[in-house]
Amino acid sequence: MxxxxxxxxxxxxxxxIGLVARPQAGQAKKAGGGQPAQxxxxxxxxxxxxxxxxxxxxxxxxxxxxxxxxxxxHALRVQGNVxxxxxxGGNITVQAADEGVLxxxxxxxxxxxxxxxxxxxxxxKPIYYIINTHGHPDHxxxxxNLARPSADFLAPPQVQIVAHExxxxxxxxxxxQQAAFPVAAxxxxxxxxxxxxxxxNNEPVxxxxxxxxxxxxxxxxxxxxxxxxSTGDIFQTTTFPFIDxxxxxxxxxxxxxxxxxxxxxxxxxxxxxxxxVIPGHGRLCDEHDVLEYRDMLxxxxxxxxxxxxxxxxxxQFKATMQTLDYDARWGSTAGPQTxxxxxxxxxxxxxxRK
Length: 354
Fold this sequence. Notes:
By secondary structure, the chain is α/β, with parallel strands linked by helices. Helices cover 29% and strands 19% of the residues. The strands form two sheets. It has a seven-stranded mixed beta sheet, with helices on both faces. A six-stranded mixed beta sheet has the order 8-9-10-11-12-13. The protein is globular, with a radius of gyration of 20 Å.
């Protein structure tokens, strides 16, 4: 794209979350305006109990051993009624207008005060909805804090937390067992069909379930009038996708989800702009970014499938370094999922499907 968003670059550098600054369209001014909302409690963030799974970054389980004191949250105006908040944890999508505020995901619990302070710069209205794209702590950890009832009698008595029913299943637990998250953080409104619609701030907000993608409860969220899609961790610009196999994730489902995103996005001019896409982690994107990511996943998956057909072992497939042409952009040798682990998951899935 032709214009550099200095605000996003600054946010990335400050938050140290590994984003890559990239020229892109949109408004460069930091979101502002409005007075602080009245009456909303700002109690200290609580910490969700650890759950097994994804290691140090907290996307699939344990809370990260991370100091949040110096992490800042910054808002980027996308278009229409939609803003993007970046900082530690997953990106947060904010839709704000006359009716109030709707959030997609809530980041870590430890970031709630900073997130709420940045939301108040966007709108003085109360939060009415929190939509969860999936159940990892860096996307749902702030649910309890941001969904607290407001002292303002004009505000909603309880914020509605909306997600696919599998997110509730993962965050809760059978009777007699300890749940992964406190009850106040659980979704209060779930769906099990292909999609769910909410009409808020004079636009349809459409949740679309993506089966067996990054997890078994993924939703993408389409703001139809604003022409913005929020994807959660199905799509990100910082690493290869995390395939949470313990929670029903598959590369086949992620690839299908990429095609579904492409079906509802469109470019403005020379494949730039148009529908904007907010990834789970990373910079603001458009359709072409999703297309590149989809093609990369398809190529690596097909290479693994071909290796399985030829009777190669996992070690033999690893030795061929089939992700080498993409490692510089999306590879990782540390963190919650290394490139080697990503390759193993794809190869094992293709072998199981043979």
